[in-house]
Design goal:
This protein has a 6-stranded mixed sheet. About 35% of the residues are buried. It contains 15 helices and 12 strands. The protein is of the alpha/beta class and about 450 residues long.
């Protein structure tokens, strides 16, 4: 049975290196790359010390060596020198590590100049140490690329989805799924179908769609929020909002999506989430307990309100909030927005909504990785604006889900919160979310968190 036969039966076709094994291999190989870079720099230090022949290694010298290793690791990480692509592309790998080494050297010289110790530096010994370190850095990078490509091949996990078209022979080495047999549809009015598509794609680095001409626009829209590189096979250019085109295996593809944040930026964003969330939960525990008791005493029912929301990659998750409405009037789908004189809201609920305290349990969603502190606010699946479902107001709506949803965001600090009575209410939020997505930076996240304190109590918070 051929790969195409298996695909037509709806079964994913596995490449020799399984997805989980490939993902784990990339992680361990990147960590090994970091360790080998540190070894190369340590050898450079050792050569310098041997030539200089110091009587003893002082604590200051060991501190300087450790500091240089940490600075190089940080610079190399920021410079994408440990990107998985560096495991199979020797030119890119050597270029990134040499740039990182040169930047580290520049920092070292600036510090030495500011401390006025340049005159005391053994130039010949340091020069030989640099030559040794650079030689080892380049050599080990070339060897790793050769070994990985020979033993594992390409580390990129790619899925090919067939939807009523012929499969190019060059894609036979990838995982293949037939959309029609597997029941996958590009229905932008069905959040559960988009959740299913997001679940299928979550372990892949790239997805390529091979479909009929009339299906390309729908697949392009569906892929905008999947948080991985998405491509559509098409020999001609069409008006699909392309990012770029690629030639792979003699086949022209149109790139219509990729994750807005690279690996380094995702790590930085997650580090900020954990650095703020863990201390916040510890400090806020007494307040959370008090609010929970008040809710329990005020009205019967659970303390927390759980609701399905759309998250990153168009995958559905359950958001946590303090319950602010009576159980019998709770709206599970969010079809009815809360209003200023909403009779469903309890006495405690009115206070915690006005002060945004009801949002605090979402710190647990952040801790679990379902949400981020800053990002597009996750909306209920039945939310409407002007009696129209959010995603029907503007088809760009699904693009906002390429990032994790946030407790706060650019739209919220601009005052776009509360009921969505008109279509313009959701358009304002969507424009702010896409602006945030396209102009993300760690400093901007910190700025939004700082400015959020100014809008915790807001005239539209009810």
């Amino acid at each position: 049975m051929t790969k195409i036969d298996l695909a037509l039966q709806g079964a994913p076709v596995r490449t020799p290196l399984a997805k989980a094994a490939r993902r784990n291999a990339k992680i361990w190989l990147c960590l090994g790359l970091m360790a080998l870079d540190a070894f190369a720099l340590a050898c450079g230090f050792a050569v310098t010390l041997i030539i200089e022949q110091p009587r003893g290694i002082s604590d200051g010298l060991l501190t300087a060596m450790l500091g240089a290793l940490l600075v190089h690791a940080a610079i190399a990480f920021q410079n994408q020198a440990y990107n998985p692509r560096c495991l199979t592309r020797p030119v890119k790998s050597c270029r990134q590590t040499l740039i990182s080494f040169a930047t580290t050297l520049l920092v070292f010289l600036l510090v030495a100049f500011s401390l006025r110790v340049t005159g005391k530096m053994p130039r010949f010994a340091i020069g030989m140490g640099m030559v040794t370190a650079v030689g080892l850095l380049v050599a080990q990078r070339l060897l790793i690329c050769y070994a990985v490509r020979r033993a594992l091949g390409q580390l990129t996990a790619e899925l090919v989805i067939l939807d009523g078209a012929s499969l190019p022979p060059s894609y036979l080495q990838h995982d293949i799924i037939d959309a029609r047999v597997s029941g996958l549809r590009t229905d932008l009015d069905d959040p559960y179908m988009l959740d299913r598509l997001g679940t299928v794609l979550q372990d892949y680095d790239r997805v390529t769609i091979v479909c009929a001409a009339e299906r390309k626009a729908e697949w392009a829209r569906a892929l905008k929020g999947v948080n991985i590189v998405g491509e559509i096979v098409m020999p001609e250019i069409a008006e699909l909002g392309p990012l770029t085109t690629r030639q792979r295996g003699g086949v022209t593809t149109l790139v219509v999506s990729w994750g807005p944040l690279n690996r380094a930026n995702r790590v930085k964003k997650r580090a900020l989430d954990l650095a703020v969330t863990l201390p916040a939960l510890f400090v806020l525990t007494p307040l959370l307990v008090i609010v929970a008791l008040a809710i329990k005493l005020d009205s019967p029912g659970p303390v927390f309100f759980r609701q399905e929301r759309m998250g990153r990659g168009n995958r559905i998750f359950r958001i946590l909030k303090f319950r602010s409405m009576r159980v019998e009037t709770t709206d599970a789908t969010g079809a009815r927005s809360a209003s200023r004189d909403d009779d469903r809201i309890t006495r405690v609920g009115r206070f915690i909504r006005a002060t945004s305290i009801d949002e605090l349990p979402q710190l647990i969603n952040v801790l679990s990785g379902e949400m981020s502190l800053v990002g597009p606010r996750p909306h209920a699946l039945g939310s409407t604006a002007g009696n129209e479902l959010f995603w029907r107001v503007d088809r760009q709506y699904w693009r906002r889900h390429a990032l994790k949803p946030g407790i706060t965001g650019l739209a919220q600090i601009r005052g776009f919160r509360g009921a969505t009575n008109t279509k313009r209410d959701i358009v304002n939020r969507l424009e702010a979310d896409l602006e945030y997505q396209h102009g993300w930076s760690l400093l901007r996240d910190i700025s939004i968190l700082a400015r959020t304190a100014q809008v915790l109590v807001h005239r539209n918070a009810y």
